[in-house]
Design a protein that fits this description.
The chain is an alpha+beta fold. The protein is 30% helix and 26% strand.
């Protein structure tokens, strides 16, 4: 009996109080034209490779015998499918999702894939991104009699596709793309095909791969390596890729004049072994560190990186400066996710559980500590204290991105203005707050040098407040909520 999850269940995970920005989710899809490839199994391992993009919920939907079955639940992919994949076996295609919620509460009803049944047929959909006109569209659809089962904007996209499809789902998707605004990378499954869609500005990434005679879609190319697939290319902004047993077809939907891939894919979100729009993520991070060393030279004894995403930047800084790279922090990889909010006085313990200073490496040394970003400043302060207590003479913080001064409205979980340390404080004020001996950030201009030659332009709205779409209504709404 196929697993079908319908009853919502609350999930008491509290989003972490750290200095990281958090991605919304990862998507994956495959059409298998080879009996040796089990679509559900390939999707499971593909999602495993994308787990860094979301840890709140996971799910897989499969198409078999002209029907769609699925299983989803709260937790990591290994937890959700700890009982195995037997109930999803025998399929010809599959799609999957790992989620970190930004739009919609964190409970089971909002987990994906989202599966809908309509008089025009059934479809399953997974989505990475965020619509900025979701409320207006939802209000309009509800005034026409639509009923929604979730609070996520993914259901709005699915409803629009179903509404606008009249025998040709591609035309329905194109019409939907003309209505929705914001960011989205979609993988849609019908009983006989899967379809990949990238938003017109290319804000969210999605790539195409191939394994033998089967085609694969994923948020990042690292998912292809996990299942032995070959990376073919990234979907173009506004592109629709249709995949079935006969192969693939490309359709061009609406495309913006100016593209705007999220720059934070290279700064933090993506795995370093991924390539996105022609740029190697690891190399971009190394170059960011090198640019820091050029623009902010410091006399010191060692260079270290905050694990794990800042290590390539630290290595780039060390190579450019000639200062030796050493580990200053050890990471405990067995610390689980936080399900219960700790008391304010105990939050520092959480940092100590995750990281510990390597005293032999830092004692008596002037340490350059490279990190990818500072959001609230709380974790940076504790790390600086930790390294100084371990005996470091000086701690010089180097950040491989500009100060984050503005919230994101396109699928990234950033704090509101009042929580962003870079919004109200100068660099010198932040330095004093975190207790570093010096603090330097990479400029926007230098950051963009690290991704020169990419197939897209970039969104840097979280740094300068210049967004790829008009978000004035969202800014007013968020400001009102803060004031309230």
């Amino acid at each position: 009996m196929p697993l079908r999850i319908t009853k919502p269940a609350p999930y008491h995970r509290i989003k972490p109080d750290d200095d990281c920005m958090h991605e919304e989710c990862g998507v994956f899809g495959i059409v298998s034209n080879d009996e040796s490839i089990d679509p559900a199994e390939a999707t499971y391992y593909g999602l495993f490779a994308l787990q860094h993009r979301g840890q709140e919920s996971a799910g897989i939907a499969v198409s078999s015998n002209n029907k769609i079955d699925y299983h989803k639940d709260m937790g990591l992919i290994s937890e959700v499918f700890k009982g195995g994949l037997d109930n999803l076996a025998g399929a010809t295609s599959a799609i999957g999702h790992v989620r970190y919620s930004t739009t919609g509460d964190s409970h089971l009803a909002n987990a994906q894939p989202l599966v809908i049944q309509s008089r025009k047929g059934s479809l399953a959909l997974v989505h990475n991104g965020n619509l900025i006109n979701a409320k207006e569209i939802r209000d309009d659809l509800e005034s026409q009699g639509a009923i929604f089962q979730t609070t996520i904007d993914t259901e709005i996209i699915a409803s629009l596709i179903a509404k606008n499809t009249n025998g040709d789902i591609i035309s329905g998707i194109k019409k939907t793309m003309e209505i929705v605004k914001g960011s989205y990378a979609l993988v849609i499954m019908t009983p006989d095909k899967i379809i990949g869609v990238r938003d017109p500005k290319g804000i969210r990434p999605i790539a195409l791969g191939k394994i033998d005679n089967s085609y694969v879609l994923a948020s990042e190319s690292c998912a292809f390596d996990t299942i032995g697939a070959e990376f073919m290319r990234d979907l173009r902004p506004g592109e629709i890729i249709e995949i079935d047993k006969n192969g693939l077809k490309s359709h061009q939907g609406p495309r913006a004049d100016e593209t705007a891939l999220c720059i934070f894919e290279y700064v933090y979100f993506a795995r370093p072994d991924s390539d996105i729009d022609g740029i190697c993520v690891h190399r971009a991070r190394e170059m960011a560190g090198a640019q820091l060393a050029i623009s902010n030279p410091i006399e010191a004894d060692i260079v270290a990186g905050v694990p794990d995403s800042a290590r390539p930047a630290a290595m780039g800084y060390a190579e450019q400066s000639g200062i030796p790279y050493k580990k200053a922090l050890a990471k405990n990889r067995y610390v689980g996710r936080t399900f219960i909010q700790p008391a304010q006085g105990k939050r520092a313990v959480g940092v100590s559980l995750k990281l510990n200073a390597l005293k032999r490496n830092v004692r008596g040394n002037r340490v350059i500590l490279v990190d990818d970003s500072i959001v609230r400043g709380t974790t940076s302060k504790r790390i600086v204290e930790m390294i100084k207590l371990a005996g470091a003479k000086e701690v010089h913080m180097q950040i491989s991105s500009p100060p984050i001064k503005h919230p994101c409205y396109f699928g990234i979980d950033t704090a509101s203005h009042d929580q962003l340390i870079g919004e109200k404080n100068s660099v010198e004020e932040i330095r004093k707050l975190i207790g570093a001996d010096s603090l330097n950030y990479l400029s926007i201009e230098d950051l963009l040098k690290t991704v020169e030659g990419a197939a897209c332009n970039f969104c840097v709205g979280c740094f300068n407040g210049e967004y790829p779409d008009n978000v004035d209504h969202l800014i007013k709404c968020r400001t009102k909520n803060v004031l309230d």
